[in-house]
Design goal:
This protein is about 45% helix and about 15% strand. By secondary structure, it is an alpha/beta fold.
C-alpha cells in the first residue's frame, strides 16, 4: 500500500471521553434525555449532524438543531485539552510511514477546523498531505465521497489505497469507494462487529500498520 487514509476519532486519537462528556452535557443543557455512553460510542464514526438525530425522538427545527450542535461544540472545546489524547505509538508509526514515502490522509466526521485543531494539539498534523472534514463533502460517511475526493485530487490509485478506521462506517466507506479497508480494534467498535464488514486487514496494535500486508483478515483471524 502506498496511500493510507485514516479516520481520526478512535483511530488516531482517543476522543471517547471527550465526545461522551460533551454529548451528554449538550443534551442535558438542551433539555433532552441524556444518551448512554454505549449509544454515543456506537455513533462516533458519523457526523453529529446525523448521529444526534438518531439518539433522540425530539422533533428539531433547523434553528433548534443548530443550537444543540453549537452547545456540543462549545462543550467539546472545553473538554478536549484535558481528555483528548493520541493513541500510543501513533506519532512514531506515522513518521515511519511518511519516511518510507507513504502518502497519509485523514477523512473525518469532524468539521475541518476542529479536525485541524485537534491534529495540531496532538502534534501529528505535519504527517498528513491532506485532510477531509465533514464540511468538505455533501454526503457523510458511510458515503464514499470523502475518499473519492482524495483519489481525484491527488491522483491516487485505488489498488494502492487503504482506509483505516475503528468503526464499521469506515469500512463501509472503503468498500463503497473501491479501496482496501483496515479495521482497528482499539476504538469504538469491537472486533466482532468489524469482522462482519469483512475488512481486508484487521489490526490490534498501531505498529501493525508497518507490516499491513501480514494482517489480512483471513490470515490474522485463524
Amino acid at each position: 500500500m502506498r496511500n493510507y487514509i485514516f479516520d481520526f476519532d478512535g483511530t488516531l486519537a482517543d476522543s471517547k471521553k471527550c465526545s461522551v462528556l460533551a454529548t451528554q452535557e449538550a443534551f442535558k443543557e438542551f433539555g433532552l434525555d441524556v444518551p448512554s455512553s454505549e449509544q454515543i460510542e456506537h455513533f462516533m464514526g458519523i457526523p453529529i449532524e446525523v448521529s444526534f438525530k438518531e439518539m433522540t425522538d425530539y422533533k428539531f427545527t433547523e434553528e433548534s438543531f443548530e443550537t444543540l450542535l453549537q452547545i456540543f461544540r462549545e462543550k467539546y472545546k472545553a473538554f478536549e485539552n484535558d481528555t483528548l489524547t493520541v493513541f500510543p505509538n501513533v506519532p512514531e508509526v506515522l513518521n515511519n510511514l511518511k519516511s518510507k514515502g507513504k502518502q497519509l490522509f485523514v477523512v473525518s466526521s469532524k468539521k475541518t477546523n476542529v479536525l485541524l485543531r485537534n491534529l495540531e494539539t496532538l502534534k501529528i498534523n505535519t504527517y498528513f498531505k491532506d485532510i477531509i472534514g465533514s464540511d468538505n463533502v455533501t454526503n457523510y460517511k458511510p458515503h464514499p465521497e470523502g475518499i473519492l475526493k482524495l483519489v481525484k485530487l491527488h491522483h491516487l490509485k485505488k489498488e494502492e489505497t487503504v482506509m483505516i478506521g475503528d468503526a464499521i462506517f469506515d469500512l463501509q466507506i472503503a468498500h463503497a469507494a473501491g479501496v482496501a479497508s483496515c479495521g482497528v480494534t482499539w476504538g469504538s467498535h469491537k472486533k466482532e462487529k468489524l469482522v462482519k464488514e469483512q475488512p481486508k486487514f484487521l489490526i490490534h496494535e498501531v505498529k501493525q500498520l508497518l507490516v499491513l500486508e501480514e494482517c489480512m483478515l483471513n490470515e490474522y483471524s485463524k
